[in-house]
Write a structure and sequence with these properties.
Elements lengths: L1 E6 L2 E3 L5 E9 L7 E6 L6 E6 L5 E3 L7 E6 L4 E6 L8 E7 L2 E2 L3 E5 L2
Length: 111
């Protein structure tokens, strides 16, 4: 019913920036929340940010000074702008709506 596709990951140097996208297809509820998570393979998944339908953002304390979540409802897309990236941000980033997860996009921060 709902599919989510992440994109925008890649290799970036410390201090650099990336913008991740989460494109949603299918019928969504009128008031829905999209979450971003990240996970290093073999380690526990970490919640990063969330945004509701009207664009109210919430960002984890660990990244709130550097990451911004936003959405473009006309494009059915949620974005995660990541600035001043650090090595510890290296992970696979996933978006989620309820039980629906995207496939993930790899972010690697390395000099």
């Amino acid at each position: 019913q709902v599919q989510l596709v992440e994109s925008g990951g890649g290799l970036v140097q410390p201090g650099g920036s990336l913008r991740l996208s989460c494109a949603a297809t299918g019928t969504l509820p009128s008031l829905y929340i999209i979450d971003w998570y990240r996970q290093v393979p073999g380690k526990e998944r970490e919640w990063v940010a969330a945004i509701d339908r009207v664009g109210t953002p919430n960002v984890a304390d660990s990244v709130k000074d550097r990451f911004t979540i936003s959405r473009d409802n006309a494009k059915n897309t949620v974005y995660l702008q990541m600035n001043d990236l650090k090595a510890e941000d290296t992970a696979i980033y996933y978006c989620r709506q309820g039980p629906i997860w995207g496939q993930g996009t790899q972010v690697t921060v390395s000099s």
